[in-house]
Amino acid sequence: MDVTKAIIPAAGLGTRFLPYTKAIPKEMLPLLNKPAIQYIIEEGLSAEINNFLVITGKNKDAIANHFDAHPELETFLKERNKSELMASTEKILRSTYFTYIRQSEPLGLGHAIWLARHAIGKEYFSIFLPDDIIISKVPAITQLIKIARQEKGSVIAVQEVSPDSVSSYGIVGIKKQITPNLFQVSHLVEKPHPKDAPSNLAIIGRYVLSSKIFTSLQDISGYAMGELQLTDAISHMMKNNEKVFAFKVQGVRYDIGTPIGWMKAVIGMALQDPYYAPHIKKFIASIDTPESFLYNSSKNIEHQL
Ligand code: G1P
Q1: What is the mean pLDDT of residues 207-235?
Q2: Exposed, middle or buried: residue 19 (CB in 10 Å: 0-12, 13-18, 19+)?
Q3: Which helix (H) or strand (E) holds 235?
Q4: Per-residue confidence at 36, pLDDT binned at 50, 70, 90?
Q5: Distance 205 CA to ligand 1 centre (A)
Q6: DSSP for residue 105
């Protein structure tokens, strides 16, 4: 099973981050010195995914500009022997294909995925939700692809969440536990009330799916009320004999869709970075209430926010 394509739904208005997101896409929020979406592309590239279908909307041009060539800047840096400042985006430019597809109406995640159907053949493909940044030794998508090959089915990344958070996520119903971290899924419930949640395993933004998902999205679109949910289509796909698995990915996940989540990501990532860490540690030690900062190296454990 080769997985070479990724759909990145990036059309959201970023209302949880207003007013920052009025003119700037939330996918362009900086994490250290790179925009968040660059981490997503680099995660894909490290798993040999080089075909990215980005679902965009109004005010999202900065994403395409970021991954395009910039001849004047390149010449300027070359003349000053500073080309390495653009090395990471140069690498992406040389090794990837981008397609941008507009989602003109906010009809939900399922609809965003459906818009890319013409670019996917009869193959397994990946989805990256750019609000979810996962820092791990083995890239999260590589972990999922390995399971998809082993089990010959679709795989969703999950993590355990507390009962009061289940209503913020798609929650997985378990058919069978295969290993401590791997489950066969029976069904999915999008943002359930805590008393209706089938487990505490929440979907986080990485998926490897069969192209059968497009038939399911089409089939459920007739009776979807308002937004077309990807979780409903995945549940439907299981009725069409596609096996779906949930895998607790190894890594630290940040939800950068809110200012607090983004701040945690910036601080957490800086403290793991050899260049930034000494500066930030010194800064934290110098402020009056260092205990108010949540950093604690023992917290950086597997399967944890
Ligand atoms: C989406 C999905 C949800 C998933 C979540 C992960 O929801 O619909 O199933 O758990 O992403 O971040 P959103 O956060 O876009 O409302």
Answers
A1: 91
A2: exposed
A3: helix 230-239
A4: very high
A5: 7
A6: S
pLDDT at residue 67 is higher than 80: yes
Report the separation in Å between the CA atom of 243 and the middle of ligand 1, taken as the mean of its atom positions. 21
Percent of the chain at pLDDT exceeding 90: 89
pLDDT tens track for 263-281? 999 999 999 999 999 999 9
Handedness of CA 299, 303, 304, 305 (dihedral sign): positive
Cα 249 from chain centroid (whole Å): 13
pLDDT at residue 168, rounded to an integer: 95
- Measured between alpha carbons, how far is 254 from 305 in angstroms, rounded to an integer? 6
CA of 203, closest atom in ligand 1: 10
Please name each of the domains of the chain with its CATH number. Answer: 5-299 (3.90.550.10)
For ligand 1, what atom is nearest to the CA of residue 202? 10
Name which residue sits closest to atom 13 of ligand 1, judged by CA: 169
pTM of the model: 0.91
> By percentage, how much of the chain surpasses pLDDT 70?
94
Tokens of 238: 């299981």
In DSSP notation, 107-137 reads --HHHHHHTTGGG--SS-EEEE-TTEEEE-S
